[in-house]
Every structure is written in structure tokens, then in C-alpha cells.
């Protein structure tokens, strides 16, 4: 199981750039603080300051500062977040193990004995919860990014563990609770921290366990600390969304169907089978977390990064469906997963062959069309790792479909392994082309052909992720605050649609139009200040 978790966590940590949007934006804040270009209290990109989610940014910046000169800053920032993902997996396993040990979650004893050992049964349920979490499609990319949401996910998993372990004597669950909610608030989710605290306190107050009822005081204390942390750091912000059209509602429904797969059908089956015992701890703990985090996602307009926070709780609910899952249902999940992930793996190998050899020709032409300018690279290490993963998949499918005595978590091993296999293949065989398509480095290199590295670039209308990429990849000084008329920079970047004629800003001359290799809709237009305007600017 540890090897399996490593095969899921490590691919994507090494050998790639920070990817577009949230990944490179968060990294931009971290490297800006580590290199002294912005304050650690008010981190900034392009001169635009922000105090949102300070704790994850401090964590990444600290690793960059400590490992400076030893490894690449992008890798240094990514290491603690890989550890956070590993912590999420571990905490989910521990929470399931504790919940499965409660009396209500244990299987009924047989008349003549022979039932499962309570500890072995709890371990099997915990293995199932871990596999269910790995199998969820929503965790795949978002869980491997360097973003504050991954720190929030770790805090939610720590909170869930604290509630699950609250009947246990000792300081571990109490310390976990006092750390989880304030850290969640400092990671940019103060409202969710308060919501989880209220839900946890209500659930503990109604528990039949005296130890759990005493735990209410620790939950309230953690909630007060999270509120104080939010007030001290100025983190009380609201990001409410709305649904104006039915298409938005349908889009959220489709998002939930694939994002939570395959945990959601198994979790619903758990709720149905335990519908008369919903207040038992092994159902109430994950259900309360699901309700709070899922409601927060809907209030934010269906934001997937908020929905990700519910994944550990969905996995816990799915694990308790395993003892009651019908054999026909388990077989259907297995065969669907075998077919789907085998097809995906074959597709990746075909594309890889086309990139390396040019055959099949049609696939090679499609790759060139989708990523123009890409130059293929060959890596023996990547090929060996991908081949080993594919052989392990074939062996696993043979083992699962054979006539063997299988563990309780047998229905989830194929979906989880399929997700891990596809991620491994994408981060080995397809990493060069994926990195080329999702990194800002190609665009920044094209901009550098027209703008000297020593110059300042005004970019008030550019998205923050591109501003961060200009600072890191291009080493440019970026002014994202002043307008084109007020800035002292001699170069200006704007995003303009390809269709239609655009009028240059007054006092500026267009010198080039560049774009991302995969962008078919917009130009990144480079302007240079006219000589007369430059004199006025000085």
C-alpha cells in the first residue's frame, strides 16, 4: 500500500514547470517572498499585493529560501505540498481506521464464531477509504498542484481525523483539532473552518460517548482560534457565486458526477443501507464534513477547488459500503474500470509512439496541430517507469479477475490503480508535451525575443498567473498596478482577441503579437512606448 501511494504522489513532482492559472500564481507569490521582492506579510505579484491564504505561501516560500542554491525553486516549493498530499492519504486512512473500530460499525458476530477480527476489519475498511480517495478523479490534478487548496484539504483531513479519534484517550485528537481549524483559516478558508467547527460541536454534543461529549470544548476552542486567526490576518472575505441559468446548474451536476467518481455512488449506497443509523459516528462524522464542504462549494458557484475539500469525507462514506456491496455491483465497477483505464493507457502509448516515431501519422499530425512548435524528447527513465506501471496494471487485472480470495477493498483496487496508472503515464511518457501545453514558459520565451530582460513590463490587464510567469521565467520587472498612461515602464503587454481590429493605447506602438502554442482565440500583444511619450513619462 505504501508503494502504491508513492506511485500516486510522486509523479508530477519532478521535471515540470508550474502550470497555468492557480499553480503558477501561488508559486509566483512564494518565489517573490523568498527572493525578497515582496513582503512576507503582504505577498505580491507584479506589485499587486494580497494577504489571502498566507500559511501555504509561507510554507512554499520557506522551502524555496532554505533549499535555495540546491534545487530548482519550483521543485523546492512543490516538495512540502507533495508531503501535504501524502498527509491527506494518511489522515484519511487513520480516520477510517478509528471510525471502523466503533461498536456500531463492526459486523455482527456469527452464531458459531468465525467473524472478522475487529482490528483486521478496521484496517480493511481503512484500506478501502484510502483506495476510494485515490480513485476519485477530482483529486488527480488539483491534488498535485502547489496551491492553497491542497493545504486546506490537509487541514480538513486533519479535522476529520480529530473527530474520528475523539473517543480515544490522549492528546493526539485534541492537538489535531486545535491545529486543524486555525490552519484551515490561515490557508484561506475561514468560513469553512467556522462551519466545520459548528457542525463538529453539534455532532459531538449529541454523541453517546462521554469522551466525545467532553470533546465539544476542544472543538469550540479550535473554532475560536480560527476566528481569531482570521481576524488577525484580515482573511474575512466572501466569494459567493450565483446560478442565473439552468445551464450552470447542469454544469455543476455534471461536475459532481465525474469529480466525485467513483466515491459518490458507493457513498449513496452507504447512506441508504445505514439510513436508520445516520447518527452513528462512522456515518455522522464524514456526513457532517460532506454537508459543510459541499454546501460551501455550491455557495461559491460550484467551485471545484472547494468541492475538493469534501473528497476525504466522500471516501470515508464509500468505504463503509464495501461490506454490503453486492457481488454483481462490484463486478460491474471492476469491468467498467478495466475497460476505461485500459483504453486510456493504450491511447497514451499510441500518442507517445506517434510523438517519438511519427507513426501513426494521423496521430502525429494531430499532436503537431494541438501543440505547434513542440520538439519531442526521449527519456529512458520515463520509458522504464511507464513500462513498469503498465506491467503492474496487467498483473493487477489478472489477479483481480482470477479465482483468488480477495480482500474487502477488492472493488476499489482496480479504479484506484487505473487512476494511478494514467497519472503515471501522463507524468512520464506525456510530460514533455503536457508541460509544453500547460506552461507559460514558451510564451515568456517568445516575449523575451522582443523585450530585453533588463526592461520593465507594464501588465495592468494581464491575469496574475501570467504576471507571475513573466517575473519567474523571464526575470522581468512587472508593473501590474499602474495603467498604460501612468506607468514608467517602456513596454506594455495586453491580451487582445484575434478577431477584430484593436486600437493601440495612446503613446504606444505595437511591435509584436505572440500567443501560447495552444491558444487559438487571443493574442498577447507587445507594445513599446513612443519616444515622445517616453520623455513625458520621465
Mean pLDDT: 91
**How many β-strand runs?**
7
- Beta-strand residue fraction: 5-15%
Distance from N terminus to C terminus (CA atoms, Å) equals 64 Å
The description of the largest β-sheet is: 5 strands, mixed
Estimate percent helicity: 55-70%
**C-alpha Rg (nearest Å):** 26 Å
Structural class: alpha/beta
| Tally of DSSP helical segments | 24
Number of domains: 3
pLDDT < 50 runs, ≥5 residues: none
Question: What general form does the structure show?
Answer: globular
Strand order, main sheet: write it out: 4-3-5-7-6
Report on the structure:
By secondary structure, the protein is of the alpha/beta class. It has 3 domains: 8-108 and 115-324, no CATH class; 327-438, no CATH class; 441-537, no CATH class. 60% of the residues lie in helices and 6% in strands. The chain has a 5-stranded mixed beta sheet. α23 (464-472) links the parallel β3 (456-458) and β4 (477-479). The mean pLDDT is 91.
Amino acid at each position: 500500500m505504501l508503494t502504491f501511494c508513492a506511485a500516486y504522489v510522486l509523479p508530477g513532482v519532478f521535471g515540470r514547470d508550474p502550470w497555468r492559472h492557480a499553480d503558477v500564481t501561488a508559486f509566483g507569490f512564494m518565489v517573490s517572498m523568498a527572493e525578497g521582492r515582496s513582503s512576507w506579510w503582504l505577498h505580491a505579484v507584479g506589485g499587486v499585493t494580497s494577504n489571502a491564504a498566507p500559511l501555504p505561501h509561507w510554507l512554499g516560500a520557506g522551502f524555496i529560501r532554505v533549499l535555495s542554491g540546491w534545487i530548482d525553486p519550483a521543485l523546492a516549493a512543490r516538495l512540502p505540498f507533495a508531503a501535504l498530499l501524502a498527509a491527506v492519504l494518511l489522515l484519511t486512512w487513520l480516520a477510517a481506521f478509528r471510525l471502523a473500530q466503533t461498536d456500531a460499525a463492526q459486523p455482527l458476530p456469527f452464531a458459531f464464531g468465525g467473524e472478522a477480527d475487529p482490528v483486521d476489519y478496521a484496517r480493511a475498511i481503512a484500506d478501502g477509504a484510502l483506495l476510494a480517495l485515490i480513485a476519485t478523479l477530482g483529486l488527480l490534478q488539483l491534488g498535485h498542484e502547489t496551491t492553497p487548496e491542497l493545504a486546506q484539504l490537509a487541514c480538513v483531513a486533519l479535522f476529520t481525523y480529530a473527530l474520528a479519534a475523539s473517543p480515544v484517550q490522549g492528546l493526539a485528537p485534541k492537538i489535531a483539532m486545535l491545529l486543524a481549524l486555525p490552519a484551515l483559516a490561515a490557508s484561506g478558508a475561514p468560513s469553512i473552518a467556522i462551519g466545520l467547527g459548528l457542525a463538529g460541536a453539534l455532532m459531538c454534543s449529541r454523541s453517546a460517548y462521554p469522551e466525545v461529549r467532553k470533546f465539544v470544548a476542544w472543538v469550540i476552542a479550535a473554532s475560536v482560534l480560527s476566528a481569531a486567526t482570521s481576524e488577525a490576518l484580515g482573511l474575512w472575505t466572501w466569494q459567493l457565486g450565483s446560478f442565473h441559468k439552468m445551464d450552470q446548474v447542469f454544469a455543476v451536476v455534471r461536475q459532481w458526477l465525474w469529480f466525485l467518481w467513483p466515491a459518490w455512488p458507493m457513498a449513496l449506497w452507504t447512506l441508504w443501507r445505514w439510513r436508520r443509523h445516520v447518527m452513528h459516528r462512522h456515518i455522522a462524522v464524514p456526513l457532517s464534513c460532506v454537508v459543510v464542504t459541499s454546501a460551501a462549494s455550491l455557495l461559491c458557484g460550484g467551485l471545484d477547488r472547494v468541492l475538493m475539500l469534501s473528497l476525504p469525507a466522500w471516501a470515508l462514506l464509500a468505504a463503509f459500503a464495501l461490506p454490503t456491496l453486492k457481488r454483481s455491483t462490484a463486478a460491474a465497477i471492476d469491468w467498467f474500470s478495466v475497460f476505461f483505464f485500459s483504453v486510456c493507457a493504450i491511447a497514451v502509448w499510441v500518442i507517445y509512439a506517434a510523438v517519438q516515431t511519427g507513426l501513426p501519422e494521423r496521430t502525429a499530425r494531430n499532436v503537431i496541430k494541438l501543440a505547434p512548435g513542440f520538439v519531442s524528447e526521449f527519456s529512458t527513465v520515463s520509458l522504464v517507469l511507464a513500462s513498469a506501471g503498465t506491467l503492474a496494471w496487467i498483473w493487477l487485472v489478472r489477479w483481480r479477475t482470477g479465482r483468488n480470495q480477495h480482500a474487502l477493498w477488492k472493488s476499489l483496487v482496480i479504479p484506484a490503480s487505473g487512476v494511478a496508472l494514467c497519472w503515471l503515464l501522463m507524468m512520464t511518457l506525456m510530460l514533455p508535451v503536457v508541460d509544453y501545453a500547460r506552461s507559460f514558459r514558451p510564451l515568456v520565451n517568445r516575449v523575451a525575443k522582443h523585450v530585453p530582460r533588463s526592461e520593465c513590463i507594464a501588465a495592468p490587464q494581464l491575469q496574475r498567473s501570467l504576471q507571475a510567469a513573466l517575473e519567474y521565467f523571464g526575470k522581468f520587472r512587472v508593473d501590474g498596478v499602474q495603467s498604460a498612461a501612468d506607468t514608467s515602464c517602456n513596454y506594455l503587454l495586453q491580451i487582445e482577441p484575434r478577431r477584430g481590429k484593436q486600437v493601440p493605447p495612446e503613446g504606444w506602438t505595437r511591435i509584436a503579437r505572440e500567443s501560447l502554442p495552444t491558444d487559438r482565440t487571443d493574442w498577447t500583444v507587445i507594445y513599446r512606448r513612443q519616444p515622445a511619450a517616453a520623455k513625458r513619462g520621465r
